[in-house]
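> call design_seq(struct)
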């Protein structure tokens, strides 16, 4: 069973797509080359998938960051990787610093809270943590 099949099984067990589901950023971006998984409507200077991963990896190293998760927005195409429109940054990092660090990724919106609701597969203790949602159209 490959990585995508394993994740599809987890999605199925979680009741996706009726229930929200998110992956840790490093699992979502692990070894993928597909450039159509995030930020697909960025009109110019679109960062590569690897650049998204590198920026999130940098943010994850800050002590005030407890975790970074990527929402699975679409899993319908078996030949492709998953698509996302939202990244969740959990912890006490200021929204201003998040905005500055993610500037090269061109998020359309940066908002407090779980944009689509709490993902059912995450630990319940994370639900009450401070979270910032980054969203791409």
């Amino acid at each position: 069973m490959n990585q995508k099949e394993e994740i599809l099984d987890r999605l199925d067990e979680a009741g996706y797509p009726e229930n929200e589901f998110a992956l840790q950023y490093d699992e979502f971006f692990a070894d993928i080359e597909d450039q159509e998984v995030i930020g697909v409507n960025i009109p110019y200077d679109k960062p590569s998938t690897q650049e998204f991963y590198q920026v999130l990896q940098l943010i994850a190293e800050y002590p005030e960051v407890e975790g970074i998760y990527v929402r699975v927005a679409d899993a319908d195409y078996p030949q492709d990787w998953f698509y996302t429109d939202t990244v969740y940054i959990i912890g006490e990092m200021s929204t201003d610093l998040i905005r500055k660090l993610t500037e090269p990724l061109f998020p359309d919106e940066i908002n407090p809270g779980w944009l689509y609701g709490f993902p059912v597969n995450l630990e319940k203790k994370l639900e009450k943590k401070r979270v910032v949602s980054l969203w791409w159209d």
